Amino acid sequence: MSSSFTSNSTSTVELKPSYNIPIVLVITAIPLLLVQPWVGLIFTLFGLFLMFQALTLRLQFTATDLDIYRGEKLNRRFPYQEWQNWRIFWNVVPILFYFKEIKSIHFLPILFDPNTLKTCLEQRCPHL
User: Fold this and answer.
1) What is the DSSP string of 18-82?
2) Distance between CA atoms of residues 83 and 65, nearest Å
3) Neighbour-count burial of 38, counting CB atoms closer than 10 A to its CB (0-12 exposed, 13-18 middle, 19+ buried)
4) How many CB atoms lie within 10 A of CB 69?
5) Cα R_g (the chain), whole angstroms
6) Contact 82, 34 (CB under 8 A)
């Protein structure tokens, strides 16, 4: 397992966490707490929830699958052969990763390095 991208599509790449979205939400919540306490509280809780997710979840690109781990435990495996499409929303400020499998659709907030994510996706499953 490597922590940065390599050009070998058979190697396993683990994406580094990114705390950009949770930090922006918590910082945005500070003035909102003064003006609209309930809205500020919602932003704070959501930002802290995403921070926890960024701390505990790991995405690994293998030669055949996208694996999601919580700690050392494999939570979910998404074989590329079942993917129909993928997209990263808002390339300038990437905040959402979408991919469609044969039987389901998935939306994930970008809580990991967006550049490595895009590189791995383009290498392992080019736009379908």
Assistant:
1) --HHHHHHHHHHHHHHHH-HHHHHHHHHHHHHHHHHHHHEEEEE-SSEEEEEETTEEEEEEEGGG
2) 10
3) exposed
4) 16
5) 16
6) no
What confidence score (pLDDT) does residue 78 get?
Answer: 96
CA distance 60 to 16: 10
Averaged pLDDT score across all residues of the chain:
90
Contact, 123 vs 6, CB < 8 A? no
* Helix/strand/coil for 88: strand
Over residues 49-106, the pLDDT tens digits come to 999 999 999 999 999 999 999 999 999 999 999 999 999 998 888 999 999 999 999 9
For residues 120 and 5, is the Cβ–Cβ distance under 8 A?
yes
The pLDDT value given to residue 126: 80
Q: State pTM to two decimals.
A: 0.83
- CB contact at 8 A, 111 and 18: yes
Question: What tokens were used for 53?
Answer: 């997710």
DSSP SS3 for 94: coil
